[in-house]
Design brief:
The structure is a homodimer. The first copy, chain A, folds into two domains: 3-116 and 300-329, Medium-chain alcohol dehydrogenases, catalytic domain (Quinone Oxidoreductase, Chain A, domain 1), CATH 3.90.180; 127-275, Rossmann fold (3-Layer(aba) Sandwich). In chain A, 25% of the residues lie in helices and 26% in strands. The first copy, chain A, has helices at 48-51, 127-139, 158-167, 179-187, 202-209, 223-232, 245-248, 261-264, 281-293, 310-318; strands spanning 3-7, 20-24, 35-43, 69-79, 89-95, 99-102, 109-110, 147-151, 171-176, 193-196, 214-218, 233-241, 268-271, 301-305, 325-329. In chain A, β11 (214-218), α6 and β12 form a beta-alpha-beta unit. The two termini of chain A are 19 Å apart. Chain A binds chain B through residues 50, 57-58, 222, 241-244, 247, 253-273, 276, and chain B through 50, 57-58, 222, 241-244, 247, 253-273, 276. Chains A, B: GO terms for molecular function: oxidoreductase activity, acting on the CH-CH group of donors, NAD or NADP as acceptor. Chains A, B: Residues 13-328 form the Enoyl reductase (ER) domain. Chains A, B: This is Enoyl reductase (ER) domain-containing protein. Chains A, B: InterPro entries: ADH-like_C (IPR013149), ADH_N_2 (IPR041694), ER (IPR020843), GroES-like_sf (IPR011032), MDR_fam (IPR045010), NAD(P)-bd_dom_sf (IPR036291).
């Protein structure tokens, strides 16, 4: 029997399990030109929080009582479309369901198996990877010897942003939310320094770990970490702004203090959304796939088993419990 | 007898006249290689407020009981330096005094009289002009049909920023602090629309006057005007940040709310300080001097007479009473 996860109610502040509902749903019926996909991997991403609200974020909001949607990697179960064959690996923005219909195969992208395992299409070789590249390299533009500070450094994007900046010759410092994550980014991702912001003042940590100041701040969180980065920024620093997760679950906006540093230090802050850069994906994949294949870069997937666990896994990711990219495995690979 | 204006005490919040003292001082004695300058025009600029504080702003702080310093246009009274002759017009960062010594002529720049009247060297053809150009054109990068919103639009920089953006084909909207200034920017500077933020909600005014949203916000003030501009910004908007005068006299930083718009709208905010661009001044002057000479652009100087009036004139400018560029005339031209 097919199953799906729907948005049962809109959260105010932090979402909890009651915002979601697991329900049975019809099996997809494949018509002319259609493709039926069996979901294998669901991507859990911070931006999904915004889509659970009523108003539009940068993506349209989810409808109540309709399935949650995110990037999903799956296998073609049935195809009446010449672009896809049974057994092909594909990814697309698909509902959180065991099996789904994609009318005329629209929005599905074939995955090239030569680039690596299929889940990479929604992780290191997909949007999180390209996000890290655009922010850390294209907007951050680190020079050898620059100091790059990354928040949510053990997250899907942060772990890669740091490794890309290292390859550019920068000193890389990360803030993370647990001692395990400190160990992860130091030992597996090769960061030069990292600290647990839950047990240490960000200001003190930056003073110690970024003795030459910050040239690039890759912002995933906003809030008081952004304020501290403004205080420790060097002249002409670049602040690519990829996320402000600290604000997503706030019901009140407390404002960012110390923004005058933008002026006194000539800082450039650039908000970016990866959809604007999607045309760069093939070139990105061709450039970095060998680095993963050859073990020059590390990418951790934090895997939760079972469609029914997706809501709890999403809430947990927002609260910072995942290391690396969190995926839900819905079916055997 | 020579006279000067010194910083008598550091202001907390808004400065008042007691922060300054007019006092007699020695006549400059011209040694080998030295130049004595008679001040004619003193420039009053918003950034001077920051230099009255203890800590460094982007320029070093003024010392207590030492003269105020700003850009000054003057005449060479006496020169033992081969680069300058008696009667030459020069400008430099000079003390607020009737006459001053510049050891070895350092920091003095000759003014080319063919470019226009001497005071232009510290106004439309000097830093305020180049500031308007870099912010409105280089960082703002307005396309024909874009909407450019400018705060402090009747100020030294704002009045030019708007006219430059008009020449680039943009629709230009200004916020100002009086009805006289509304009339000024509409009738003399050719803005498409303007409003008095003291008598009208900025949000309402932007909704009416920028019906297609804001593509470029030239920020001179920060604070709630910046917050409103973030709300009305279009996707991919550019926010050159030239000043945050609303914060300069605040003793508490209330923070900027709604900065998440940077992300959802992919806004680029760039703080800039004109000293980083000073190498562009000759090319800027060559480009725009004909526009002023031929009457294609308008530039208003708000002139206050007498060195002793400089403190009151500076305080008044910070409170928004000047239209255009405020200068203090210290001697006959």
């Amino acid at each position: 029997m097919n199953k799906q996860i729907v948005l049962a109610k809109r959260p105010v502040g932090w979402p909890d399990e009651s915002c979601f509902r697991l329900e049975q749903c019809p099996e997809p019926a494949c018509g002319p030109q259609d493709v039926v996909v069996e979901a294998v991997w669901l991507s859990l991403d911070p931006y999904l929080r915004g889509r659970m609200n009523e108003g539009p974020s940068y993506a349209p909001g989810f409808a109540l009582d309709r399935p949650m949607v995110s990037r999903v990697v799956g296998r073609v179960l049935e195809s009446q479309n010449a672009r896809f064959r049974k057994g092909d690996w594909v990814w697309g923005f698909l509902p959180w369901a065991l099996r789904c219909l994609t009318p005329r195969g629209e929005g599905l992208t074939l995955i090239d198996p030569s680039l690596g395992k299929p889940s990479l299409a929604i992780s290191a070789l997909g949007m999180p990877g390209l996000t890290a590249w655009v922010g850390a390299i294209e907007l951050g533009n680190p020079a050898p010897g620059d100091t790059v500070f990354i928040s949510s450094a053990a997250g899907a994007v942060g772990q890669l942003a740091g490794q890309f900046a290292k390859r550019a010759g920068a000193r890389v410092v990360g803030s993370v939310g647990s001692d395990d994550k400190v160990a992860y980014v130091l030992e597996r991702c090769g960061f030069d320094a990292a600290f647990n912001y839950k047990t240490r003042s960000v200001d003190e940590a930056l003073a110690e770990l970024c003795p030459k100041g910050i040239d690039v701040y890759f912002d995933n969180v906003g809030g008081s970490t952004l304020e501290a980065a403004l205080r420790h920024a060097n002249i002409m620093a670049r602040f690519p702004v990829c996320g402000m997760i600290s604000a997503y679950n706030e019901t009140e906006d407390r404002g960012i203090r110390g923004l005058q540093a933008l002026l006194s230090k000539r800082i450039q802050m650039t908000g970016f959304i990866i959809y604007d850069h999607i045309h760069k994906l093939p070139a990105y994949q061709a450039r970095v796939a060998p680095w993963f294949r050859d073990g020059e870069m590390h990418f951790h997937e934090d895997i939760v088993q079972g469609l029914e666990q997706a809501p709890t896994a999403l809430i947990g990711m927002m609260k910072g419990e995942a290391i690396g990219k969190r995926l839900v495995q819905v079916a055997a690979e």
